[in-house]
Amino acid sequence: MLPLSLFLQKALGVRQYHVASVLCQRAKVAMSHFEPTEYIRYDLLEKNINIIRKRLNRPLTLSEKIVYGHLDDPANQEIERGKTYLRLRPDRVAMQDATAQMAMLQFISSGLPKVAVPSTIHCDHLIEAQVGGEKDLRRAKDINQEVYNFLATAGAKYGVGFWRPGSGIIHQIILENYAYPGVLLIGTDSHTPNGGGLGGICIGVGGADAVDVMAGIPWELKCPKVIGVKLTGSLSGWSSPKDVILKVAGILTVKGGTGAIVEYHGPGVDSISCTGEEGGPQSWPLPTHHSWLCFSTGMATICNMGAEIGATTSVFPYNHRMKKYLSKTGRAEIANLADEFKDHLVPDPGCHYDQLIEINLSELKPHINGPFTPDLAHPVAEVGTVAEKEGWPVDIRVGLIGSCTNSSYEDMGRSAAVAKQALAHGLKCKSQFTITPGSEQIRATIERDGYAQILRDVGGIVLANACGPCIGQWDRKDIKKGEKNTIVTSYNRNFTGRNDANPETHAFVTSPEIVTALAIAGTLKFNPETDFLTGKDGKKFKLEAPDADELPQAEFDPGQDTYQHPPKDSSGQRVDVSPTSQRLQLLEPFDKWDGKDLEDLQILIKVKGKCTTDHISAAGPWLKFRGHLDNISNNLLIGAINIENGKANSVRNAVTQEFGPVPDTARYYKKHGIKWVVIGDENYGEGSSREHAALEPRHLGGRAIITKSFARIHETNLKKQGLLPLTFADPADYNKIHPVDKLTIQGLNNFTPGKPLKCIIKHPNGTQETILLNHTFNETQIEWFRAGSALNRMKELQH
């Protein structure tokens, strides 16, 4: 009788070379090099998908396969898109340093000894851009030593991997090391969906959600709808993956993806090159020229910025480009295993999407979005004319490339290709120009391969491997606050004041190569597809569309080792938080609900217009207080516009009748036992996943946030902290409430899923109006409210 392995080789014919590895890989393939005993469970994914397939009896989208494949109880879970709450078992957790502080403080409060799933902390948010990479990194290590030590020791104590400052941006590190097709990963950053570029479902959450998963508790997510984006044709010339998501943002707007996963599919996903060669998922040929959805970093760019349309996450189907990227980053075993389970890593033919968008890549032109919102889309060819008409400054003060959205090897190569053409004609950038590598691996590799030097030669400054100006960590010196100016970035967000705390900075987002071209020209009126530059010799020339290797020809240079493994035995590890620290503060439990309706709530502020998490809890200089709840609460809603006077950070104190800062007024109410509420507009809390925007109002005595609509992550964060996120049953009721009114919320003794609450509006003249308020609480979340917070409820269940 033939041995089993030889029998399978004979049976499989042309694939016999692969059989031995298949037998081994199906048994055990590690999720990452850093966790050799934590294995990919495609077998469990397959089992769960088969259960769901029998139950639903219909073709499944890729999003459904991965999400439902991670159900805690696939046989009995109620499933209805956009309605039911799913109980899920994510594979891993990732936290960036600004949000990890509060997440780890909450985990410490839980009393649990170790995390239940593989988890990592990434130091990328606390490094301020000033003069350049090395000096900025040294300065950050010095001024943030207390926080870095807390995160390192907490990681060691509780079994969490720690990526030191300088290692790179969390999402690039995940892409290089942890993301893989079919993974369900949650991260305490809104751009966690970046990992969808490698075929995973990667979702941004608040720290309290991360604590649930690290504690081994099933994680709850409202069953997402699925928006399909069918891509046809192929990108060419100056068009890039960034233009795909800039176009989608223009279509869906900043809230059009709320409650949905955006799933890209169609022949355009597998388009190969500008030369017109094509290959489908069956043949999977390798590129012979540059391709624009060339591999996972291009697709990651698109998924990353899906956060700007409010999407739960975005995902691409597994294909040969992902296989190539996995192999190039030392994970060929994962790629081979994914090949064996490929049917579960792509959508079923004939699957149904709740909404379908079609984009012909062959017709897509370079785009640039802004200012002040990432969904204001313009073709690059038209933005100069629009800017002149709108009165936006057309001269570009600074061009900035990098960020978690666009800092891959190819992004840097494309930008260097543009810069090299300018240098050949004796030109440098007219605008200031900065470069942010996405990781230590990217930095080391672009230094070795010469890209970094080309970008310096054209006038650029290479910053630290960190978020930097993208999140407001920018010590900008070239303008004064209040000075009207324009910057162009390859970042993802461009909210008012986000990059430099100047409300008059008009920020536009586009691809790295367009940023580089515009920085060389110095004006929004330049269109690299058609316009000419004048060289040092006086001769006119036109920039050619850039081309660059999608991956380095040699292996990636890993650079410095910046990873700290958690020790096997952490019993002697101490985690110290000084009671006098201004950066860190142990958490005290929030008070439980007293069993009564909320009577005579004072309105702290009625917000006019857009109110992002940047407005609610600003970043930039406030990042240093992310581990100290009381200190960071001094930025509560300081960016929100008060409808009463049209000003930011100026609200009426209902007792003294004096106008003052929002946090001071909230503290006054808390001191005097006055409970308060915030009234908001549409898509309240869009943007970052920062749960500080929920912790701060709870800490300062808030009880409810009433709006026309919420962004997904922020609504969940509010629930986790024991607040009531409520929406007007009739959005027009927003106009019935005035800042001087008082509100009473009734029906909390009979608080049940799907049943509206009653709100009594008490006007100063003695008249009253009654309106209805909707909510999305389920039974579990109602228990969070009653207990005072999700963490309080977790402790109750432990006891």
TrEMBL record:
Gene3D superfamilies in UniProt: Aconitase, Domain 2 (3.40.1060.10), Aconitase, domain 3 (3.30.499.10), Aconitase, domain 4 (3.20.19.10)
Highest taxon listed in the record's lineage: Eukaryota
Region annotated Disordered, chain positions: 549-580
Main subcellular location of this protein, as a coarse class: mitochondrion
Reactions the enzyme catalyzes: citrate = D-threo-isocitrate
Keywords, ordered alphabetically: 4Fe-4S, Iron, Iron-sulfur, Lyase, Metal-binding, Mitochondrion, Transit peptide
Listed GO biological process terms: tricarboxylic acid cycle
Domain Aconitase/3-isopropylmalate dehydratase large subunit alpha/beta/alpha: 64-276, 297-522
Cofactor(s) this protein cannot do without: [4Fe-4S] cluster
All copies of domain Aconitase A/isopropylmalate dehydratase small subunit swivel, residue ranges: 602-730
EC numbers, comma separated: 4.2.1.3
GO cellular component term, pick one: mitochondrion
Compositional bias (Polar residues): 570-580
Gene Ontology molecular function: any one: aconitate hydratase activity
Plastid keyword on record: no
Tagged with keyword Mitochondrion: yes
Its job: Catalyzes the isomerization of citrate to isocitrate via cis-aconitate.
Family statement: Belongs to the aconitase/IPM isomerase family.
The protein's name in its UniProt record: Aconitate hydratase, mitochondrial
Organism encoding this protein: Prolemur simus
Source organism phylogeny: Eukaryota, Metazoa, Chordata, Craniata, Vertebrata
UniProt gene name: ACO2
